């Protein structure tokens, strides 16, 4: 009898201990897999109504045991990817006859960055050339990154790891299409090369920039790079007196590239002396953009364009002054001049350059239609406020400004031109002035921000309007949130979120919870979502203001609901 009772007590003890261990294990698992407190907060659904029943409880039916981990269980093997980008830090005036700001940015890019051991690293992807210049994307802990609101066209990006390893790559982006740009720093190559002039004489002291790294040729014209990441490395070679040279060089993994297979030839360079005769417009320098006149210079052996136009454009020239531009290619070059408060006459000019010679060109400015205005806060002028005048579609505006057809932005590294995007600072009286370029856009978005960035304001300016007053309002200090409606879910869903190019911690959204993204600055956001590389939400604009939670409905594809069957 005593032995039986002892066995029973031992069984009960083990059962309780086992349950406690399971509970502890579950709590630990929840801590490891749950997102951070600011990043994503799943919201429990509201409790349903309680309905009274006259039927007696079934005492013989044991209560249903619910496995807490079942909510996280899923057969969906691909994540839902969401990207949120801040369009404006205040709600803009939405007009049905005007497209939203940033409407031309619908290209997507994703990729993976691996370190020396092959594992993913939290690298940065920084655009240093092209229409996305200045944008920074951040890899998550697994080395993945994603962006969904990039401008189309040829862009240059620098990929850098936390340990300082770099790669510089070109990527051609297209609207409504996802491109992949991945870099692996494991199994690097060793690169040897040589630089010569067109007659075959080695050039000493030439600068060679390959994949974001820089070196110089020795007295034999030779150069060397250890541990070069494999892939298509952007390479630029230059030397005073010669034309700059550009080429995409394929670098094999864990191989040695010899100087016999990597040889660059430089041509004599042309120089251009430019003078702006009239001293009119704002006190800021004018911007001169140069474009190839009769097609791109092409390397016949490799079929690539050979001149890095993005390195010379734009050139800053003060009205009434002269500047010298060297290292240009021989041939016809288009010149497009922009200056606040003035307009070039004619709009574009063509100049023919000759190798080894200097060509002089005088450019002219004339008074132009202007948009003048003031920035005020509670009726008082705001000094040194940053003011931006932006066309709704920057790519279209830039192409119209230089009279180029759609697709030109894919042929060369093409930045946003001042005809579509102008930036100035207010004077002591809070005043600003912009050039009104005719025929570029039916309307523009005008935004202003105080020097301390705590006050903001914006409005829509119609083409032809000449005066504008921007009233600044206090930026709400309370962070906003966004709920993404996901109907039809009954199991866990892997989710990856990027906010302003920065990855948040990946997680599995339980099947009985809503997706809530918190910690968002007040303003107008663009929300995009994709699943397995296909868009499920494109460019949805939502205004988030302080404590007011925004809502975006999203229809998931069947595989995101039911998983692989």
Task: Describe, in short, the structure shown.
With 565 residues, the protein is mainly beta. The protein contains 3 helices and 44 strands.
How many extended strands? 44
> How much of the polypeptide forms β-strand, as a percent range?
35-45%
Q: According to CATH, what is the class of the largest domain? A: Mainly Beta
- Into how many domains do the coordinates divide? 5
Task: Please state the second-level CATH architecture of the largest domain.
Answer: Sandwich
- Poorly predicted segments: 1-67
Classify the fold: give the CATH topology of the largest domain.
Answer: Immunoglobulin-like
- Largest sheet geometry: 6 strands, mixed
Distance, first to last CA: 55 Å
Envelope shape: flat
- The radius of gyration over CA amounts to 30 Å
Report the CATH superfamily of the largest domain. Carboxypeptidase-like, regulatory domain
| Rounded mean pLDDT score | 85
SSE class: mainly beta
Number of helices: 3
Question: Roughly how much helix do the residues carry, as a percent range?
Answer: under 10%
Structure description:
The structure is a single chain. With 565 residues, the chain is mostly beta strands. The strands form eleven sheets. Strands 1, 38, 39, 40, 42 and 43 form a six-stranded mixed sheet that branches. The radius of gyration is 30 Å and the shape is flat. The two termini are 55 Å apart.
Tags for this model:
8% helix; disordered N terminus; Immunoglobulin-like; mainly beta; 5 domains; 3 helices; 44 strands; six-stranded mixed β-sheet; single chain; 565 residues
């Amino acid at each position: 009898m005593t032995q039986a009772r002892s066995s029973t007590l031992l069984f009960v003890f083990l059962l309780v201990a086992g349950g406690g261990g399971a509970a502890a294990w579950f709590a630990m698992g929840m801590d490891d897999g749950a997102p951070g407190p600011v990043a994503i907060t799943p919201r429990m659904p509201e409790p349903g109504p309680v309905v009274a029943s006259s039927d007696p409880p079934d005492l013989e039916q044991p209560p249903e045991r619910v496995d807490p981990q079942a909510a996280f269980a899923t057969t969906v093997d691909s994540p839902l990817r969401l990207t949120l980008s801040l369009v404006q830090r205040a709600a803009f005036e939405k007009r049905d006859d005007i497209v939203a700001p940033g409407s031309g940015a619908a290209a997507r890019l994703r990729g993976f960055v691996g370190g020396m051991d092959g594992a993913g690293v939290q690298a940065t992807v920084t655009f240093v050339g092209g229409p996305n210049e200045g944008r920074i994307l951040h890899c998550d802990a697994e080395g993945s990154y994603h962006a969904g609101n990039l401008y189309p066209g040829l862009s240059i990006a620098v990929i850098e790891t936390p340990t300082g390893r770099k790669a510089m790559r070109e990527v051609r982006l297209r609207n409504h299409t996802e491109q992949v740009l991945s870099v692996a720093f494991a199994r690097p190559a060793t690169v040897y090369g040589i630089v010569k002039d067109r007659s075959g004489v080695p050039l000493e002291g030439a600068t060679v920039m390959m994949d974001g790294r820089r070196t110089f040729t020795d007295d034999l014209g030779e150069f060397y790079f250890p541990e070069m990441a494999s892939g298509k490395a952007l390479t630029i070679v230059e030397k005073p007196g010669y034309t700059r040279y550009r080429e995409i060089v394929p670098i094999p993994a864990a191989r040695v590239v010899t100087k016999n297979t990597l040889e660059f030839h430089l041509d004599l360079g042309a120089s251009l002396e430019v003078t702006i005769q009239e001293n009119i417009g704002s006190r800021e320098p004018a911007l001169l953009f140069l474009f190839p006149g009769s097609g791109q210079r092409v390397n016949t052996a490799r079929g690539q364009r050979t001149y890095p136009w993005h390195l010379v454009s734009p050139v800053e020239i003060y009205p009434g002054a002269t500047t010298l531009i060297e290292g240009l290619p021989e041939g016809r070059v288009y010149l497009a001049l922009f200056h606040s408060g003035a307009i070039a006459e004619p709009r574009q000019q063509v100049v023919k350059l000759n190798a080894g010679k200097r060509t002089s060109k005088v450019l002219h400015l004339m008074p132009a239609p202007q948009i003048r205005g003031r920035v005020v806060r509670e009726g008082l002028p705001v000094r040194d406020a940053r003011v931006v005048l932006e066309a709704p579609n920057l790519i279209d505006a830039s192409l119209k400004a230089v009279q180029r057809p759609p697709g030109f932005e894919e042929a060369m590294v093409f930045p946003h031109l001042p005809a579509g995007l102008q930036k100035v600072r207010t004077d002591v009286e809070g005043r600003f002035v912009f050039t009104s370029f005719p025929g570029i856009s039916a309307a523009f978005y005008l935004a202003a921000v105080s020097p301390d960035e705590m006050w903001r304001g914006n409005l829509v300016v119609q083409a032809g309007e000449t005066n504008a007053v921007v009233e600044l309002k206090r930026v709400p200090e309370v962070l906003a949130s966004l709920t993404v409606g996901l109907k039809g879910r009954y199991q866990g869903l892997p989710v990856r979120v990027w906010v302003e190019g920065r990855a948040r911690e990946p997680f599995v959204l339980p099947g009985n919870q809503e997706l809530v993204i918190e910690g968002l600055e007040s303003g107008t956001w663009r929300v995009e979502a994709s699943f397995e590389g296909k868009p499920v939400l494109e460019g949805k604009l939502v205004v988030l203001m302080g404590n007011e939670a925004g809502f975006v409905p999203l229809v998931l594809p069947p595989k995101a609901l039911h998983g692989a069957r």
